[in-house]
Automatic annotation (TrEMBL):
Organism: Eubacterium ramulus
Keyword Transcription attributed: yes
GO biological processes: positive regulation of DNA-templated transcription
SMART domains: REC (SM00448), Trans_reg_C (SM00862)
Protein name, per record: Stage 0 sporulation protein A homolog
Function: May play the central regulatory role in sporulation. It may be an element of the effector pathway responsible for the activation of sporulation genes in response to nutritional stress. Spo0A may act in concert with spo0H (a sigma factor) to control the expression of some genes that are critical to the sporulation process.
Domain of life: Bacteria
Record Gene3D superfamilies: 3.40.50.2300, 6.10.250.690, Winged helix-like DNA-binding domain superfamily/Winged helix DNA-binding domain
4-aspartylphosphate modified-residue sites: D54
PROSITE patterns in the record: OMPR_PHOB, RESPONSE_REGULATORY
InterPro entries in alphabetical order: CheY-like_superfamily, OmpR/PhoB-type_DNA-bd, Sig_transdc_resp-reg_C-effctor, Sig_transdc_resp-reg_receiver, WalR-like, WH-like_DNA-bd_sf
Record keywords: Cytoplasm, DNA-binding, Phosphoprotein, Transcription, Transcription regulation, Two-component regulatory system
Amino acid sequence: MNKPLILVVEDDPSVRNLITTTLKTNDYRYVVAPNGSAAIMEATSHNPEIILLDLGLPDMDGVQVIQTVRSWSNVPIIVISARSEDNDKIKALDAGADDYLTKPFSVEELLARLRVTQRRLSLMTAEMLTASSVFVNGKLKVDYAGGCAYLDENELHLTPIEYKLLCLLSKNVGKVLTHTFITQNIWGRSWDNDVASLRVFMATLRKKLEPTEESPQYIQTHIGVGYRMMKIE
């Protein structure tokens, strides 16, 4: 797998050095930006394949950078920030970030997040090349054209809402989807009772995808934030 070009947006020299040293040691290509304005310029000129973004930048909030980049690009954005409150995570994810890593972080965790993002990029590329209407993840198969799903070749009996949730999660595999994003896509709105309903539907969907304790975990819960479909090897 070819290593992607990564844009590192971090104003703290010590943290930036830790990240770039880690990337260099693991043979990643990278460019750096110390603030939001430089990040936007580097993103337009170098077309990076992944962006590692700090939120507390000296000239603008990182969420503004996400919103600006999202106006023209779907490049995966992994936020790396000292802000650990759920509200901060939700703002960044709703703005278009794909993942959120809280400082202080371990080098191993950073590399793991990059590997997950690389797999998602590879999956997206393969889907574009094949124009496939079938999603496969472990023993799970979703036939978008046929409007049905299978687990270990057995058809899943899903309600319309459960199927819509499964499609939304599978089309964003590896990405954390916030409660707001999901409810707006499923019901066209985001009310408190929709989030309560979402938890119920997600619980029933998970029971059908993970019928035994030995079953792989397809859906990961991010408490207070949302859900992510995991890529099963």
